Amino acid sequence: MKERYNIIDFLRGFTIIHMIIFHLIFDLINFYNFNINMNFYYYQQYICISFVFLAGLSENFSKNRIKRSIILGISSILISVFSFIFDRSYTIYFGVIHFFFSAGIIFYLFEKLSIKLNKKILFFVSLLLFIIFKDIYKGSIFFKLIDLPENLYTYNLFILGLPKATFTSGDYFPIIPWIFLYFSGYYFYEFLNIKKRMPSQNIINILGRHSLIIYLLHQVILVAILKLIFG
C-alpha cells in the first residue's frame, strides 16, 4: 500500500463532508421549498476556498497529470450535460471540476517559469491577487472598492471571470480569481514539514482519498434519497 500525506487526505475529506452538508441544504431549499432562514454565504465560501487551496497544494504530489487531466476533462463535460438534462436553470457551464481541469493545464504551462523564483514570496503574491480579484465576476475588484468598466463583460468571457449580467451557472469557478488561490495552495507547501505515512483508515481520510468520485456522485445520491423521502 502506497504511503500518503494523511493530513492532506483528512483536510480534503473534512471539506467533502461539509460540501455534502451544504448541497443537502441547497437541495432542500431549492427543490423542496424548505424555509431555512440562514445566510450560508460564508459557509459556502469556506468550502470553496478549502477545496481550491487543497487542490493546489496537492499539485506538489501529483504524478500522472495527463491521466488526471483526461478524467477531469471528461467529468466536466458529463457534469454540464447531466445538469442541463436535470434542470436547465441550474446547468453547470464552468464549475469546480471545469476549473480544476483548466487549472491543471495552466499550472503545467507556468510551473517551469517559477522554478527559480522564491516560492514563499509567490505564495503571498498569489494570495494577494486572489483577494484583490475575488469579486471580479461581480464587476469589481479590491473588496468592491474599484468598479470595472462594463464593456469588459459584454463578450461573456465567463470562463475568465468576465460574465454577462445575464449569465448563470449552477456552479461557477472562473479562472480569475480562483487560479491565484490554486497557485497559493501549491506554493504553501514550502512552509510545511510533513511526511508520507501508511494511509490512515479513518473514515474522513478514506473520503479524502476518493474526493473526486464522491463529488461526481454525491448530488445524484442526495437527489435520489430526497426523492424517496419526499416523493
Would you kindly provide a written description of the structure presented here, covering whatever features stand out?
Helix 1 (6-32) runs antiparallel to helix 2 (41-58). The protein has one domain. It contains 8 helices and 2 strands. The model has no long low-confidence stretch (mean pLDDT 94). It is mainly α. Helix content is 60%, strand content 2%. The protein has a two-stranded antiparallel ribbon with strand order 1-2. It has helices at residues 6-32, 41-58, 65-86, 96-110, 119-133, 175-188, 203-209, 211-230; strands at residues 140-141, 146-147. It is globular and about 55 Å long.
Care to give the gist of this entry?
With 231 residues, the protein is an all-alpha fold. Helices cover 60% and strands 2% of the residues. Strand 1 and strand 2 form a beta hairpin.
H/E element order: HHHHHEEHHH
Query: Which regions contain 5 or more consecutive residues with pLDDT less than 50?
Result: none
Question: How many DSSP E strands?
Answer: 2
What is the structural class? mainly alpha
How many structural domains does the protein architecture include?
A: 1
Which band does the percent of strand residues land in?
Answer: under 5%
Subunit organisation of the chains: single chain
Domain Heparan-alpha-glucosaminide N-acetyltransferase catalytic: 4-220
Keywords: Membrane, Transmembrane, Transmembrane helix
Protein name: Heparan-alpha-glucosaminide N-acetyltransferase catalytic domain-containing protein
InterPro entries: HGSNAT_cat (IPR012429)
